[in-house]
Amino acid sequence: MCFNSFFFLFFFMLINFFFFVYFIMNGLSVFFEWEIISFNSMSIVMSILLDWMSLLFMMFVSLISSVVIFYSKSYMNSELNLNRLIILVLMFVFSMVLLIISPNLISILLGWDGLGLISYCLVIYYQNLKSYNAGMLTALSNRIGDVMILMVICWIMNYGSWNYIFYFDFMKNDYVMFIISFMIIIAAMTKSAQIPFSSWLPAAMAAPTPVSALVHSSTLVTAGVYLLIRFNYLLIDMFFFKVLLFLSILTMFMSGISANYEFDLKKIIALSTLSQLGLMMSILSLGFPDIAFFHLLTHAMFKALLFMCAGVIIHMMNDIQDIRYMGGLSLYIPLTSLCLNISNLSLCGIPFLSGFYSKDLILEMVSFNSFNLMVFILFYLSTGLTVFYTFRLIMYVMISDFNLMMIYNLYDEDYIMLNSMFVLLFMSLLSGSFLSWFIFFYPYMIYLPFNLKLMVIYVSILGSILGFMVSNMGIYSLNKLLLSYNLSSFLCLMWFMPNLSTYGLSYIYLNFSQILFKNIDMGWSEIYSGKGIFNILKNYSVFYNIYQMNNFKIYLFSFILWFMILFIFFFI
Amino acid sequence: MGQIMGGYHARSVDLNSDDNPTFDPQAGFQYERKQREMIAKEEDLISARIPNKYRDYCAHYLLDYQVCRYKEMPLLYRCAHEKHNYLNCEQQDYVLRMKEFERERRLRVRENRISATA
To answer: In angstroms, rounded to a whole number, what is the distance separating the alpha carbons of residues B42 and A251?
Structure first.
């Protein structure tokens, strides 16, 4: 089943590639509409929109999923029900394709809900308590977005059809569109894990690593960004887009800091995904959907590769994910380290890897346009933080001394996993250049002062130095950090967001109900009803009992007294 | 950001980066300035489906680039020359606009100075 699915998806990718080239060459967009049923003035239609953007995204999704399935053959080799995983992944790809090609909100909902449901099934794939909790957090966070899409479907009924693309130009200033766009933004924020819905993404790392490579780095989480790219024409002048800009920049900054405090290999990568999602969302809300799409695609490639390398390392380390137990791995697994390094450096935006083309373009566009100083500073700080945690990771995992095991028995043994990684390695090297030629019909002119142009290099050098220093930090300095324990725990726990979105949400209500239970149920109502009446009756009966008992005593006593009096009177 | 910093010292004369020139275009010049000429033809731009916001004074280079893209697809790196020409023209255009902005600023400062002394 693995190889069949791999060949099917790979073939699908090739078809998409040829159609993409043909469509982009001729500027084509094909719109299919199939009327399923029509009653009164409403018709239910299944519509499909094929343009260069949907074809390119489908090509990337099918390439990554085919490679991930190939990789799973070896990674999940001891799994009894491997076919179950493959079927879930195929269903996931189907949902994603449905979402990508839909200009219709009903089929978007089908794809969207499909993604949520299958990602839940994949997160709880390893059946243990941690996975169940992570899965529930993931499913419920995504459920908010599903509900928003459902409400959008209800609202867009006002126009008589669910094909949203027909209403962009004509209904742009309508009040209903205002509500619709607000809900779409909330839905996209839940799927792309923006603040305040960020906590599910690191938790979802409970899923198997190939699933994380496909679902939680490159496809599912970018569904929200893709939806907003499609709705961009509608949203561009909205006030909510400015709020989204603010939240996405904070997401980028927050996850960059949290990644520096994290020691779990997969969680570091998950937080870096969150940071890049923030970057995509922010450039999207600044009004450059094509650059956001560009970064989405290049990021999908190198992040999937990064996860796959992490999977190989976790396998070799006997399922240890803590980077403090690793070290010096580049000597033992040079090929995997090569892939890990290239994907990491691509993430940092090192020229001329794929991440450079998109990330550098984003930062230069931010510098070139008239945006707020705060936006500018947070963008560059977050870029520096990306290099910071990446170099820290490289130092911990690959360069410093090994830490745990007496004898490492590690070598690049598994050529199924390595081959699948090399496909993505090739794409991580070349996709940036390839895409920058293809998708920008109208190239961007950027003209900056010298130091502003080199600002990315400056923050990168600073970040790499800090990353090097932090990874060599001694126990004395680590203990010093305990002095600022409150600040550290705030920063490393993603600004307390996991707490806020789990028991933080229910704490006030549960606490209030506990107080009510204590004071009303167990307190006043008990005093004034059941227990209180019982006490009163009991006290009265005790009192009467005493009286009754005393009466008897008094009666006997008076009897004796009278008897004594009579005795005294009569006999003395 | 660069735009904000560059335009910051123009705030004192109430000049923002999106404002149009308000002075006579010939003022202060020894020679007569000529209006720029649009080289690309309207019908070519329509036929190439170039969006309105790209129909500027560099549109003829953009047309060349689009033609090259069509011819060389998918080996688009062969259009590097055309792309460079277009971006170079856009850069020259940008420099021209910035010079016009600076001229407007200086003329406003001059106007304020003259009105203050009068």
So the answer is: 45
